[in-house]
UniProtKB/TrEMBL annotation:
Its cofactor is pyridoxal 5'-phosphate. The chain holds residues 155 to 670 of 832 of the full protein. Keywords: Decarboxylase, Lyase, Pyridoxal phosphate. Transmembrane segments: none annotated. The modification N6-(pyridoxal phosphate)lysine is found at residue 341. Residues 143-159 have a biased composition (Acidic residues). GO terms for cellular component: cytoplasm. GO terms for molecular function: carboxy-lyase activity; pyridoxal phosphate binding. Belongs to the group II decarboxylase family. It comes from the Eukaryota. GO terms for biological process: amino acid metabolic process; carboxylic acid metabolic process. This is Tyrosine decarboxylase.
Length: 516
């Protein structure tokens, strides 16, 4: 393909994508294919000779589209939203066109620097504690106070914990100008946080017992999370060879300080070494919130690293009215959120902020000669901030989308999803055969048919088999729930009504069948 053909085919591709998104509701939400469907449709070997572009695109419709789950479909209510928007798609397009690999500042300075600025924008938009924001805090506070459209002043107040950090010197000059952040998948953020915490604890234990073997030390480390935390915490434990305690939650599906405290005490009595807690703002199961204040205080006292995972709910904090949900965030040593879930940014884009940049860099740095450059002392090299070396130019899609929507537009989008979740909750509450499980705080509604778990299980099976709507289940405190997430970018009141009608009609059949 030469550049003339690329111009033509590129324009056709934009039309194809725009048509796909505009007409998506005409498609069945989930595919009807069986595992292995694709192999017989494709040749056994790669073609020896070039093939015409038209033939390739024809196969997209005949072979690929039948196997697509349409995440942007108005009846897709599974998991959490898969963020997407036109400016974000264009950002990806430009990133692919530039074809850079931004592992270090020198590998493409704009890639690193735009990422740093975007993380600062997001941190301010979400009113993160100042330990995650750039060094010049006086200017930052003043900016947010002066800005009438950004009513963040209350959230920006210095907590006692923040004031301590300002004087204890964790905020270094120069380096903090570059911010304290990086990005990975949410799962990678949790893993990286756990690895940093592990390295930090190992170093401090070595001071106490210089002769202890690595293996012996690692076998004593214990991490804590709740039973409702995302499975990535358990996986991080598998990778880091760390015991992870999955603790019980209370009646509001929240991990409480007392539960953590008891578990830490029991472990210490066994000679184990607690070192890490991962709390969640907006659990995947039911969008519940761990009690960060209680947990944070314990982490401070016991010198445990406190990571907070706000993969989905974090985007809501661009709206002031939802910031009460992040109470206690100032205790966090690290924090992540995924704009690729709920901020109209397409996959992948997870953001990670860390309080102690040195703990991160110490845990993750290797420095072969071929990756070094003359600006390394002054510049940020994100290769030291995560597992992967090579990095895409993800900041472009953040920059395009935030600028094209404006913070006001993004807030409107988040608020609409939350309003629609309330509309859907209202519809369910009018039908007394259903019950709502947990609180509807953002864009997720968890519900079930009153009765046995099996009944709701049957309902969900029948709904998903129909291909008319797609949702996934979860289990909270042994109760089977159906999760309804408002996902579509342009979801409407009518979409809530249509979804409810489908659910109600299947519930009628399932209940009839169950009685028979
Ligand atoms: N944490 C939470 C709370 C999530 O909801 C999810 C995914 O839904 C994850 C972590 C994992 O995200 P990722 O796919 O970016 O690793």
């Amino acid at each position: 393909m030469d550049s003339d053909e690329f111009r033509r085919r590129g324009k056709e591709m934009v039309d194809y994508i725009a048509d796909y998104i505009t007409n998506i509701s005409a498609r069945r939400v989930t595919p009807e294919v069986e595992p292995g469907y694709l192999r017989p449709m494709l040749p056994k070997n790669a073609p020896d000779e070039p093939e015409p572009w038209d033939d390739i695109m024809k196969d997209v419709e005949t072979a690929i589209m039948p196997g697509i789950t349409h995440w942007q479909h108005p009846r897709f209510h599974a998991y959490f939203p898969a963020g997407n928007s036109y400016p974000s798609i264009l950002g990806e397009m430009l990133s692919a066109g530039l074809g850079i690999v931004g592992f270090s500042w020198a590998a493409s300075p704009a890639c690193t620097e735009l990422e740093t600025v975007m993380l600062d924008w997001l941190g301010r938009m979400m009113a993160l504690p100042k330990v995650f924001l750039p060094f010049d805090i006086n200017r930052d506070y003043k900016d947010s106070d002066d800005d009438e459209t950004n009513s963040d002043s209350e959230s920006y107040e210095l907590s006692d914990v923040d004031k301590d950090d300002t004087v204890d010197g964790t905020v270094e000059d120069g380096l903090m100008m570059n911010g304290k952040k990086s990005r990975h998948k949410a799962s990678e953020c949790v893993l990286v946080a756990m690895l940093c915490a592990r390295a930090k604890k190992v170093a401090s234990q070595r001071l106490i017992d210089p002769h202890i073997e690595d293996g012996q030390l690692l076998s004593k480390l214990v991490a804590y999370t709740s039973k409702l935390a995302h499975s990535c915490v358990e996986k991080a434990g598998l990778i880091a060879v760390i015991k992870v305690r999955q603790l019980y939650v209370d009646d509001h599906y929240s991990l409480r300080g007392k539960t953590l405290e008891e578990s830490i005490k029991a472990d210490k009595e066994k000679g184990l070494i607690p070192f890490f807690v991962s709390g969640t703002l907006g659990t995947t199961s039911c969008c519940s919130y761990d009690n960060l204040e209680e947990i944070g205080e314990i982490c401070r006292r016991e010198q445990l690293w406190f990571h907070v995972d706000g993969a989905y709910a974090g985007s809501a904090f661009i709206c002031e009215e939802f910031r009460y949900l992040m109470k206690g965030i100032h205790y966090a040593d690290s924090y992540n959120t995924n704009p690729n879930k709920w901020l109209l940014i397409n996959f992948d884009c997870s953001c990670f902020w860390v309080r102690d940049k040195f703990a991160l860099v110490n845990a993750m740095s290797v420095d072969p000669l071929y990756l070094q450059h003359k600006h390394a002392q002054k510049a940020v090299d994100y290769r030291h901030w995560g597992v992967a070396l090579s990095r895409r130019f993800r900041a472009l899609k953040l920059w395009f989308t935030i600028r094209n929507y404006g913070v006001t537009g993004l807030r409107h989008y988040v608020r609409e999803h939350c309003r629609l979740a309330k509309v859907f909750e209202g519809l369910l509450r009018k039908d007394h055969r259903f019950e709502i499980v947990g609180d509807v705080t953002l864009g997720l509604v968890c519900f079930r048919l009153i009765g046995s778990n099996k009944l709701s299980q049957k309902l969900l099976l029948s709904l998903n088999d129909s291909g008319k709507i797609h949702m996934v289940p979860s289990m909270v405190n042994d109760i089977y729930i159906i999760r309804f997430a408002v996902c579509s970018k342009d979801a409407t009141d009518d979409d809530m009504r249509v979804a409810f009608d489908i659910i109600q009609s299947h519930a009628n059949d399932v209940i009839q069948e169950y009685k028979a």
